[in-house]
Write a structure and sequence with these properties.
170 residues; mainly alpha; N-utilizing Substance Protein B Homolog, Chain A; 7 helices; 65% helix
Amino acid sequence: MSSLHDDNFWDGPVQEPLLPKTGKRTRGKPNTRTERVETRGRARALQALYAADLRDQAQLRRIATTVFDDLAIDPEERAFASRLVATVADRGTQLDAALAEVTNNWRLERLGAIERSVLRLAAAELARDEAPVKVVLQEAVHLAERYGTERSARFVNGVLDAYARKLGKL
């Protein structure tokens, strides 16, 4: 058992800060050399949805514009992210209601902001019907794990699988 006077405790190696499992990237910063524009756009849209969730969901478009301006993101990335954000802004109530139907024993407001934002993002993308369903689900799970936890990723996977099945897309 270590005590405050245990030399092995104080003189041991310094633990480096934790980084995402995907390599040397810093948390939340996409690796622009290897990720597709859509993947980066989803991450940016998630950042905007998360910020709006913490501040004021009714101001989603304004908050997204501020986030995108502050990050000075690539125009293609911004266009993709803006379409997803606009879908959530326009259809948010319907998307939340549909998601609530498949989140057994969990009200959306009880979920963590990351999980809630990832679910909204994926539901919006499924509503747009522009990308293959499996890609949308895989990207959402990846975002949940990257910005949340492995447990978040499993939860998001289960909810979105049920949601896509309910929509008849799987």
